[in-house]
Amino acid sequence: MELMSQHKTPPLLVFNEKGIYCAEADVYLDPWKPVNKAIISHGHADHSRWGHKKYITHHKNVPIIRHRLGDIEVSGKDWNETFTINNVKFSLHPAGHIIGSSQIRVEHKGEVWVFTGDYKVEDDGVATPYEPVKCDTFITECTFGLPAFKWMPQEEVFAEINNWWKQNQRDGRTSVLFGYSLGKAQRLLKHLNPEIGKIFTHGAVENMTEVIRPYCDLPETTKITRETKKEEIKGNMVIAPPSAHGSPWIKKMVPYVTASASGWMTFRGARRRRAIDKGFVLSDHCDWQGLLASIEATGCEKVICTHGYTDIFSRYLIEKGYDARTEETQYEGETGEQETKSEQEEKEN
C-alpha cells in the first residue's frame, strides 16, 4: 500500500515558473515565460506574451495577438472544436471577457479541468457570451472576489454614461472616457449613443478597434491626430486608454471632463488616486455573485484561485464545501489590461 501511495498520478495541470503546464501534452496555458507551445485564452498583455514558438487560440483572437505581438506562428480554433495533443483533448469555450476570449477545457483519462483565463457572465454585445463548462477542477480568477463588488446591469451604466456626455456637451466640455484599448474600449463604443455627437479615439484605441471591426458592429469613430483641431473635438466623446491621462496628448481636449469605466470605480478612493472626475462601475470580469454562480454551474469539486482576492475567496469556497486552494501566477486582472509599450507610442500617430 505504501508503494502505491508513492506513485500517485500527478495533477493534469501544474503551476510552475513558466505558467500552467500540462505535462502529458507538453503544452502551457497562458504562460508568462517563453515556451515551445502555448494555448492562449485571450489577447490581454498579461495572458498573451511574446516569445512562444507556437500559439493556439480562438480564431477571433488570432488577428488581435498578431497586432500586439507581431509575426508569430499561431493557429486558430472554433468554439467547442476538440484538438488532441499527445492523447490529451483540448477545446476552447466562450469566456465572455473580451472578443475572442476563451476558457480552455483539458481532458485526459476521464478527468476534466477548465482554465477560465479571465471571464464575465454578462453579455456585453461584443464578446461571445460566457458558457459554463462541466468539469472536475476549475481554475478561476477572482479579480473582484469580494462581496463588495456587485455590478449594476450594464444598461443602467450606459444610460449614466450617455447622460453624462449630454450634460458635458451642454456645459461646452469634451467628455474623455478612459478604458483599456482592447476590450473595454470596444464595449464602450458598442453602447455609446452616436446621436449625441461624434466619437473620437486615441490612436491605440482606434488601431485595436480596426482589428476588431470585422467581428463586431461598432459606430463610426475618428482617430485623433496632430492635425485634429480642438474645435472639432469640443463637446464630443473621446475614448482613450488610462495611460493617456495626464499626458501632453490630452491637452488638446481642453476644456474637458474625465471619467473611467472600471470595476475599481466601486471604491471612491480609486477615483481620487487616479484624479478622475467621474467613475462608472463597469468591469469585464465577474463580480462576487458571478464568480460563485459560475463555479456552481461547472459542478466541480476542486477550485484553484489564481489572481485577485485569492485568499479571501478560496477560504469562502472551503466554507461552502469546495476543495479550494490558491496558486501564484503573473496574471493581473484589470491592471494587466493596459496597452503594450508599442501601443503607448501610438498616442499621436
Automatic annotation (TrEMBL):
A molecular function (GO) term: ligase activity
The protein's Enzyme Commission number: 3.1.-.-
Keywords, in A-Z order: Exonuclease, Hydrolase, Ligase, Nuclease
Basic and acidic residues bias: start-end ranges: 338-349
Region entry Disordered, spans: 327-349
Highest taxon, organism lineage: Bacteria
Organism: Autumnicola tepida
Keyword Ligase: yes
Name of this protein: Ligase-associated DNA damage response exonuclease
